[in-house]
Amino acid sequence: MNYTAHVTVGTATGIGVCIAAHQMGYHLSPVLVIVPAYIGSALPDIDHPKSHLGRRLKLISKLVSKTFGHRGFTHSLLFCCLVGWLLLQINQSIGVGAFFGILSHILLDMLTPFSKGVALLYPIRKRIGLFKA
After folding, report:
1. How far apart are CA 75 and CA 118, in angstroms?
2. Residue 133 — pLDDT band, cuts 50, 70, 90?
3. Residue-wise burial string across 61-76, b where 16 or more C-beta atoms lie within 10 A, e elsewhere
4. pLDDT digits (tens, 9 = 90+) for 94-119
5. How does pLDDT run across 59-77, given as a tens digit for each residue?
6. What residues have CB less than 8 Å from 117, skipping those under 6 apart?
7. Do 49 and 68 form a contact (C-beta atoms < 8 A)?
8. With contact defined as beta carbons under 8 Å apart, do 83 and 77 qualify?
9. pTM, entire model
10. Helices 92-111, 3-23: crossing angle, 10 deg rounding
11. 118 by DSSP, 3-state: which?
């Protein structure tokens, strides 16, 4: 999946979360959900130095790539929950937005045809994908 697809779906997910939360009586700030969902939807690809985010944060990207590989830790439920929880400590809307943005990225990569899948249950390194090569 590419950057544009990830951030488009991530943003749409953020909007959907805001609507669903409002209908359930939760009052989340739309801006503080949608912006972190947008950023979160690009964040897992920090593990690939040639990704949109990787080209902008080269040193961090190379370090994460060497340590975990592509579609490893940053494409796991552990990473998604850890980032979401950490940001939840700052602000509820930000944490929720980031969580769902990252989750949307992971799910899209699981749907990518002919990929090797993602390490969804990291540290278990078995790759999971719906159309695995």
Report:
1. 6
2. low
3. beebbeebebbbbbbb
4. 999 999 999 999 999 999 887 889 99
5. 999 999 999 999 999 999 9
6. 71, 109, 110, 127, 128, 129, 132
7. no
8. no
9. 0.94
10. 130
11. strand
